[in-house]
Fold Cytochrome P450.
Amino acid sequence: MAAWRSRVVGWAARRYLAWRSRRGLDPVTLLPDHALMPLRRDGLDPVPGLREAREDNPVRHFPLPFGVTAWLVTGHEEARAVLGRTRGLSNDFGHLVGQAGVKEGQNPGGLGFTDPPEHTRLRRLLTPEFTSRRLARLGPRITEIVDGRLDAMAELAAAGEPVDLVRDFATPIPSLTICELLGIPYDERDEFQALSTARFDLFGGAGAVFDNISGSLQYLRGVVERQRVEPGEGLLGQLIRDHGDELDTDELAELADGLLTGGLETSASMLALGAMVLLRDPDSFALVRDEPGAVHGFVEELLRYLSVVQIAFPRFATEDMTLGGVAISKGDGLLVSLSAADRDPRLVSDPERFDPRRPPTPHLAFGHGIHRCIGAELARMELRTAYPALLRRFPHLSLAPDAGTLDDQPFRRTSIVYGVDALPVVLG
């Protein structure tokens, strides 16, 4: 009876949210403050409420409006169990908003919001392009991109212009790299860059998020249609040449959208927030600058410590199950807090401390299981190239004197991908 009541209430809630959306009333404004708690931070750290939730119960009831039943997963072991489970949990986008609440062209599809066997088919087509051997060809180009951005920063400083690490370093490096990978003209970067950033910011409201998804897909459909006529040398052109008959325009646009948004905003946030870690920690700064090879351990610890993707794609139970000793009913939603799971003391001792010499851990910064980020190795390549180059080129890099403290910087208030919008520096 309880499960039946939950499904009825959930259905009614989705219908009501769809009704509000059609009338321009944003459903996100209905969420109580505690519902946004997994997306809040104190500077670089998850808010204490996430730690308290994990200590109370790593799988705990997470009340949402209208009686929608959801569970917040904050423990590392429990998070891996959810992310690695292939039976009884669904990522399908329709569960998230209800089919009535999604307008045509707003479903991002792709890998993140599909289930097997469709997910299996799409990932099989992409995986060969993300092997270490295939990605190695991008190594020299990433080095060129990083060096080019450092030159541009030096020119700004020489001209007496302010240098912003977000604008001039952290954002253009993954933007140029993902353009290179996909074969998208770099002179069109501003359009998808803006769409990528805005879609993760829930403070702007769900309506804006869906509009940005729609805009991104519309733009990418045009790119795909042009490449069907004249396939380029990038990933899109390769997919069209090898699998053009298996993938329609919408599917290709959805795959490209997932790679763009997953590979641009996350890497940009990591580069910016990682630079903040270096600026506040002289020992880490010197280690990465002076010791060849130290960047590998630094990057792995940084991925764990920052976990910029704060929550995983929501899962929805398609059958009754037990998780962490808690009974989950069919229809319930599961929100996995990656930032909380990666600060679990069961994963590492003293998890709130950043230690670049810590042995690598099985962190969840890239997720886990069949939905683990397919571009994880590309992201590592960018980070491992960018940080040492930055510090060796500008060994006296520091925060701009008029920028206050690191804690004063404009962090995002409510974003699935955590980040900072500006980081003014002096190159020294």
